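Intended use. Records such as the Peptidase entry shown here are meant for training and evaluating sequence-to-structure methods. They are not intended to support clinical decisions.
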Amino acid sequence: MKKLLMSLGLLALVSCTSTSPTGRTQVLLVNKDQMTQMGIKSFDAMKQETKISTDKKLNNYVQCVSNQIIKTIPKDWQSGWEIVVFDSDMVNAFALPGKKIGVYTGILNVAQSADQLAAIIGHEVGHVIANHSNERASQNKIAGVATQAAQIATQGTEYEAYATKGLGLAAQYGFLLPFSRAHESEADVIGLKYLIKAGFKPEESQQLWRNMAKVGGKAPSEFTSTHPSADTRIDNLGAHIQKFKEQGIKALQPRPSCSR
Ligand SMILES: [Zn+2]
């Protein structure tokens, strides 16, 4: 009986496999619409609870860079993105299912050029398009952890602070937990490709991580988390800049002029 259940379980897993943009096999067990709804609900809650930047120039700048990136992603992903600039000194940005991206003003001091901001936006878009949140929720499911109970995993860790910073619902769904090394590296690579196609300077993505390393782990965020290490990311990006060059991946449009 146990064997039968196990093979039934395996069958269910096999039927839910999918392929990420870099060709990696993934298991996605959570209904896509459900993920989208959770993302939208979390984002709405954050917009209620966290101060949104009213700096028009800054908002236009972030929107300008984001638009350039979104123009280069697969056609069926291009519509319906929402990008919000939150007024907070946290060095962070995040992406939620449902095409929601949050950028904190704090990270704009670390991303010192439009090219570096494009690396951040590309990375976040990469997480969404590669269904990383669904994959992580699915892994929790396999491990027998209910997604709704993901906040338990944050208790007693530096991430617990999120719950008190008006990020309750997103934290509760586990959206704000750091992604795995594999997901981080994959989001870097996916983002890099978009940023090259969008006409931004790919080498600036490496400079971004040098800047990030100087900030260190002062604030818990997916950008200041220690995995992968800045050196590993910079090397990985360098290798992929070379690889994409050899593959003939190039800018599809002139370098955008987004100024802050
Ligand atoms: Zn990430």
